[in-house]
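Appendix B, Record 12. Input sequence as logged:
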Amino acid sequence: MLQLSNKQARHLMLASQGLAGNFFGNKKEGTLNAIEHLGYVQIDTISVVERAHHHTIWARLNDYKKTYLDELVETDKTVFEYWSHAAAFLPMRDYRFSLYRKNLYATGKLKWYFNKRATKFVYDRIVAEGPLQSKDFEEKKKKQGWWEWKESKRALEQLFIEGKLMIAKRQGFQKVYDITERVLPAGVDTKPPSEKEYAQYLVTKTIRANGLVANNEIGYLRRHAKTAIGKVLNEMEEEGLIMSVKIKGDNEPLYTTQQNLDLAASQKPSKTVSILSPFDNCVIQRNRLKRIFDFDYTIECYVPEPKRQYGYFCLPLLYGDTFAGRIDCKAERSEQVLYIKNVFYEKMPDEKLRAALGKALKKFAVFNGCKEVKMA
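Logged structural output:
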């Protein structure tokens, strides 16, 4: 079994994540390439700084604009919303693989919510009236005694998770739902995958995006697929499609491909600072982050304030091939100022790191619609 040094493992992961050099391209085409390569980009509602999905793509594309993602969803229909391990933007080319989870919910094998009367009412209205938002059902609470707005909201999510509705677009970040047949572009493969095909898809996309992964990371929040993933890993390794490796000093087998190894060998992380989202694909697996980078990271917006160590929404700072610290900042868009509340370094920074962070913050401020960077 091939053994990697910790440095090789870090380079392999960063190169595969598109954080060791931009190999996605530029503008809208580069945006689509990034989403297709990563397999998903997580959506989150927190807007202390720019929201996670835009932030994640921007960290990999210097010329990214939010309109690119909007156009890919609404106009080009090459990206759609659904669940990965969480709510996410997914490449339309992978649409058929979303059907595996949808069918589990539709058949009741996975539980979400079900109120037959509510889902029928909501679905029939959208069929008849066209795309609607959850707020379009608010007044029904007054007009119909049996109706509750919270029931319609749950019904919308049930129909969405089953695949009967899709999110056609967002208005002011609010979801606009329509029936699937009116959202899907022509020619999309809608044949549901078998359990084996679904597992092969998860294995392939996770290794491609992360460079090297453990078995349990491929099945993260997908308990329904863990057994199939284990079987597929063994089969793909026997066929030479993937290979198992170990990091020196760590006995757990990880999986990668020769293609990923070649990519890592051709790229070297530059000594610049990347300010990442807490929901960035590179940091979302906290155990892997600790194992490979020795960076113990927790997002503290879900931690009671008295127990926070660093701040409500601290952002990881990637410097070359190490995580150099985290920064607590907030974009006050009305003032066009990016306020820095605090910076926490893993060890005493030198002047090169400070200068690199200063450059990164200027770019980050512009991305957040700010003209200045100030200490809070």
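The two ends are 51 Å apart (CA to CA).
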